Amino acid sequence: MKPQTFSHNTVLLQESIEGLKINSQGVYVDCTLGGGGHSQWICEALDDAGVLVGIDQDDFALEFAKKRLADYTCRRYFVKSNFASLTKVLESLHLSEINGILYDLGVSSFQLDDDTRGFSYHHDGPLDMRMNQSADLTAETVVNDYHPGDLKKILFIYGEEKFASQIVKSIVRAREIKRIVTTLELSEIIKNAYPPKERYKEKHPSRKTFQAIRLEVNGELRILEDSLSQGLKALKPGGRMCVITFHSLEDRVVKHFFKERANPCTCPPGFPQCVCGKEPELKIISRKPILPGGDELEDNRRSRSAKLRIIEKLDTGQEVL
């Protein structure tokens, strides 16, 4: 069933808003606007000189957020785009010296709950999984048309699925008979490919495969590091970046990016002083990822895998955007 309202529990809301250290007259970018949960609290902290830029690929999310944030006095820009185009978005708005950037990665609750979007393995719907519904690549294409070797690689790398070989063999057998076109068709194939003793453990057998296909369809991991680089360049010295991830692959990309930019020195460990000349671009505010508290975990089970990392840009004397 397609939801009539936008239902989304904003994850790590207080922690991410506090992490941004909002200046009431600053410029803030929500790279994953969704229904505007984080953006609403950013707008609460901004006065009429402050600016919010909300970026999302989803038309429904953009329209909902516009209505949700309509009564705030700060300047608001809503842009249909992917965070891979962050620099172009900011240039088109003639904005620079950004005070804060937020990423809330992954799929929104409303997308999961909308059966017509094909993200959920619990309900029947078309194999779609596009965050941008005008994009060409769908989950149906990945499942039915990808070479078995490529499909196995996607499941193994993006889903960290240890039964990737068995699942792909089952998919190939099924698609030779007829095209796989619905989420429950695919979920049933995956479940039957799992060893029986593994099938009914705590987590659903389709979880990792659906995650992997979604990441492939939307290119999420391929664009993440590049977007983080664009975001860091756009930040003014002292500006903050908050990134919320929901699985280990995303978190690994973010952690590695932050660590590399915080300590870029390539000199051998035994050197008495740095001679490579590479200066840190940021300092890490949250040495360990910030996790949801007990109350949030109880209220929103989808928050259980969330991790928040926060950095602050240093003044290196380089130009900003």
Automatic annotation (TrEMBL):
Top-tier EC class: transferase
Top-level taxon in the UniProt lineage: Bacteria
GO MF annotation terms: rRNA (cytosine-N4-)-methyltransferase activity
Keyword S-adenosyl-L-methionine among record annotations: yes
Annotated InterPro entries: RsmH, SAM-dep_MeTrfase_MraW_recog, SAM-dependent_MTases_sf
List of residues binding S-adenosyl-L-methionine: G36, G37, H38, D56, F83, D104, Q111
EC number(s) per entry: 2.1.1.199
Gene Ontology process terms (BP): rRNA base methylation
Principal location listed in the UniProt entry: cytoplasm
Subcellular location, record wording: Cytoplasm
Record's catalysed reaction(s): cytidine(1402) in 16S rRNA + S-adenosyl-L-methionine = N(4)-methylcytidine(1402) in 16S rRNA + S-adenosyl-L-homocysteine + H(+)
Keywords: Cytoplasm, Methyltransferase, rRNA processing, S-adenosyl-L-methionine, Transferase
GO-annotated cellular components: cytoplasm
PANTHER family, A to Z: 12S RRNA N4-METHYLCYTIDINE METHYLTRANSFERASE (PTHR11265:SF0), S-ADENOSYL-METHYLTRANSFERASE MRAW (PTHR11265)
Family indicated by similarity: Belongs to the methyltransferase superfamily. RsmH family.
Stated role: Specifically methylates the N4 position of cytidine in position 1402 (C1402) of 16S rRNA.
Protein name: Ribosomal RNA small subunit methyltransferase H
Native source organism of the sequence: Acetobacterium bakii
Lineage: Bacteria, Bacillati, Bacillota, Clostridia, Eubacteriales
